Amino acid sequence: MADLLALSSRIIDSGVPEDPQNRVTQELSEVADGIAVVESFSHVIALRTEDGLVAFDTSGVATGRAVVESLRGWSREPISHVVYTHGHADHVGGSGAFVADAEAHGRPRPTFVGHENVPPRLDRYELTNGWNLHINRRQFGWLPADRGLGIGGGGDRFLPADVARPDVTYRDELALAVGGTRIRLVHARGETDDHTWAWIPERRVACVGDLFIWNFPNAGNPQKVQRYPEDWARALRDIAAHEPELLLPAHGLPVAGRERIARVLDEVATALERLVADVLTMMNEGATLDEILHTVRVSEGLLSLPYLRPLYDEPEFVVRNVWRRYGGWWDGNPANLKPAPEAVLAAELAALAGGADRLATRAVEVADAGDLRLACHLVELAAAAAPDDPGIHATRADLYERRRHAETSLMTKGIFAAAVRESRAKADPG
Fold first, then answer.
1. Which of 187, 181, 183 is nearest to 169 (CA)?
2. Fewer Cβ atoms within 10 A, N terminus or C terminus of the chain?
3. CA atoms within a 13 Å half-sphere pointing along the CA-CB vector of 199
4. What is the pTM of this model?
5. DSSP 8-state symbol, 141
């Protein structure tokens, strides 16, 4: 079993990334007296009290049962409360396993607690079930099966049918007292609008869910609803002001030490604050989204930190979310306000170029010269102009495969991998 605190301290203090930083092993580690972490997707934090266990999150549907088994190897005490840090499927999807555990032992169902926006989120997942299945296939479908990231509901469901809805909700803050242990729940907007972080004052412990994920903050996912990078930074500053001595995230490693925690929270908050400020400065000067996207950057010094690398989300996507929040959906290009159908525009440009195959050939030339961004624009035009041409789709698949390997973030890789699969199927239907 890994010494998680020693590993995280070494990584943070040296500034050198080491694997694994975010494991999905279902292993339980006791990181303090009566406090345990089960490494899963997402992690589950367990706190022992005189009235039983308090769990933070339940992991996903594919991992919830294994998490409960790991908890049972550590403690046979009943699970009194489950606190949802937010309503994402990898945090609430395993709740059925927690209910089943209580029933199997003839115990009362745990009390589930979450922010008041968790139930509307679960309602929205039902309303957009098909869309979310498509998102997951694009975002995670290219990963090897052994990664264990099965966060959907299985089959034709995004969210499992047995997800436990909160019994107790709150708006701004909620004081819980479980078995003599005080827990303060605080609402924050960041990755979601329903996020909760928990402060356990007697232990100086902060359970922060996805507000700290050992990657650049997931504040720009291109397939998801609005995220809140400036609120996220404020939440990190608020957590740091409590001077925690143990920081327990739902992804990645726990972090110990007041000064070490203060430093990492400050650096993540600073990255978000500077990015938002730079975007708003350019918006106030009248810049278009295109101009902002290709101007605003997060410093390489920050992005090189082991807990700020853009391996899941990335700053360019966060720029778009800032624009969307403050500037609406129009990007500033008048032609894009009421555009022609993409296929019509592609056919016209292909005709001007001398055929769709000429666009595809030029795309390869541009890619070979090192400009994969432009190459992908050209091959998309070619494929839109000749949607049934297997040769063009073979070129498109090859270019997006090259593009996928050149990128760092899982989201980008997932979308490009989906394009590869799509075109390979059209290039060779057999």
1. 187
2. C
3. 17
4. 0.95
5. T
The CB density around residue 115, as the number of other CB atoms within 10 Å, is 28
Rounded to whole angstroms, the Cα distance separating 341 from 69 reads: 53
C-alpha span between 418 and 424 (Å, rounded): 10
Peptide bond preceding 222 in cis form (omega within 30 of 0): no
Cβ-count burial 37-51 (b if 16+ within 10 Å, e if not): bbbbbbbbbbbbbee
376: which residues sit within 8 A by CB, 6+ positions away?
Answer: 363, 399, 400, 403
Are 209 and 115 spatial neighbours (Cβ–Cβ below 8 Å)?
no
- Distances, alpha carbon 229 to alpha carbons 196, 269, 411, in Å: 15, 9, 18
Beta bridge partners of 183: 176
Burial environment of residue 157 by CB neighbours within 10 A (0 to 12, 13 to 18, 19 or more): middle
Give the helix ranges, DSSP H, for 163-228.
none
Q: pLDDT in tens for each of the 430 residues of the chain?
A: 569 999 999 999 999 998 878 889 999 999 999 999 999 999 999 999 999 999 999 999 999 999 999 999 999 999 999 999 999 999 999 999 999 999 999 999 999 999 999 999 999 999 999 999 999 889 888 776 545 455 566 678 999 999 999 999 999 999 999 999 999 999 999 999 999 999 999 999 999 999 999 999 999 999 999 999 999 999 999 999 999 999 999 999 999 999 999 999 999 999 999 999 999 999 999 999 999 999 999 999 999 999 999 999 999 999 999 999 999 999 999 999 999 999 999 999 999 999 999 999 999 999 999 999 999 999 999 999 999 999 999 999 999 999 999 999 999 999 999 999 999 999 998 7
**Which of 15, 175, 3, 162 shows the shortest CA–CA distance to 81?**
175
